[in-house]
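Entry 14. Structure prediction run on the chain below.
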Amino acid sequence: MSERGNFHIRGRVLTGPDPDDVRDELWVVDGRITYERPTGPLETTTVEGWVLPGLVDAHCHVGLDAHGAVDDATSEKQAVTDRDAGTLLIRDAGSAADTRWIDDREDLPRIIRAGRHIARTRRYIRNYAHEIEPGDLAAYVRREARRGDGWVKLVGDWIDREQGDLTACWPRGAVEAAIAAAHEEGARVTAHCFAEDSLRDLVEAGIDCVEHATGLTEETIPLFAERGVAIVPTLVNIATFPRLAEGGEKKFPRWADHMRRLHERRYDTVRAAYDAGIPVFVGTDAGGSLPHGLVADEVAELVAAGIPPVDALSATAWAARAWLGRPGLEEGAEADLVVYEADPRADVRVLAAPRAVMLRGRVVR
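Output returned:
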């Protein structure tokens, strides 16, 4: 790990999404950002380029792989991969592993945890979740709210083997009681939802966010917009739907057809949500079957869906940090930032090749 130093960063410092939110330089002194030129003798290292606040992956699973919890060494590799891709703030949307030790590491990204997934019995990936019945939902939500960092993660829908398709996991009353319990504990609630059926109940019960949200329709999009419910589309994950459908078609043909239809309209769904004013944020769903370090790919997917590049950037930078209650490139903030060779607003593909990554005032890449 590099030693913390003092830096003069010059070029174009992008402090926000508006064209006027640009500064020519900043300094990093004792690990913190300042826009006031330091007085007196101070040895600094100069870094040049286009500067963004540390990127956000708002749906990422450090400590998890396709089979469940992983050991600390594997968790560290996952976190380093995300860091080196420019992701310096992670909302860990459910993990069976205890990753609190990462908070003591100044060279690893900051993690906002949602505790462990809460799922219906035999209605989610094995070894991932607390698998319970509706009568216990509120109690488990309250417990995970106390263990997490201000978020709780529900599994809102999953394949029902008797129906042969995706169905909602929880009755309306159980969801209402659970979300109320989380809010009483000061936590926000999000839910995994691929399909259409669970969305109205979750939103009307007061949910704060929905992951994937491929089941949004003309009927539910206005409801999300009215209630201010955010979505994290995870389009790099939705890209796997055709492969999943092919693998399960013989046993669950209805489900396979449904997954293909959700995939086919994925870009239209995300663009319609954005056009309606629904907050959209970047998340990769790394750590299950997907590798880490995909934040640039997800931003490019949002642009492919029709979201303007500057707003796709904001979904992983300025707006995402504000949504999670973390500072960006503000006076006095800890220096978590990424430097690029060219303007990422002109071409978001620039995000795939950071020139430098600075975490807590240290150049870590």
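The first strand starts at residue 7 and ends at 14.
Filed with the rest of this week's runs.
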